[in-house]
Amino acid sequence: MAWGLGYFGMPHILLRFMAIEDEKKIKTSRRIATVWVVLSMAAAVLIGFIGNALSAKGTIGELNTSSEAETVVMVIANLLSKNGVFFAILAGLIFAGILASTMSTSDSQLLAASSSMSENLLSNVFKIKMTQKVSMLVARLVLVGIAVLGVIIAWNPDSSVFRVVSFAWAGFGATFGPVMLCALFWKRSNKWGALAGMVSGGVMVFVWKFLIAPIGGIWGIYELLPAFLVALVCIIAVSLLTAAPDKEITEEFDAVNADMKA
User: What is the pTM for the complete model shown?
Assistant: First the structure.
């Protein structure tokens, strides 16, 4: 259930809403996104149940490791392809869907990473003045670096894609999720609270993952949940202990809320 908290902080998801051409379509887009998430997650869980049952009955091989379990949908598709032309075509569609979904997420994440480095970090945070050509070069170098890192991770046949994605999902969700929620729904939140929330949430993901969760028992929960809560508490506490946002900000907040309610 804690996995759902990650959606509040995913850049490639938030960018879709931020780039919408008509703000009146946000409600419709929200409903479509919610329905799609329910269907896709339900399908993923169903595939897991089916794969577990097939493995238990010996129809497919045992799925002893995480890396083997992650390929269960491909194993099932391969099994289907051996039962006639129709099922072979169906298996082909499944493999095509896997490639399409992988590329769809990859290009969004790569674009977000490259633009974050060249525009957000170097230009806005470190105030490094760059020409458009240099900015493009930096973005491309970031893409190459990420690609090399991806190859290194994939080189190990026992590596788990899900574990990597799960950790990254927790990092994004805990770092940006509470900030987004407070910025949208709490007028008193300020920049210092947002900064405290991002830092504490990001740090807590690492602390919980590598120091606390290994203890096991009640501590062995998904790191996103405790990190999200810690970030939320830090945002509230620091915002209340520091100066309130400027009047211009609060007026803009009220104006946006009034437009949304209308």
Answer: 0.77
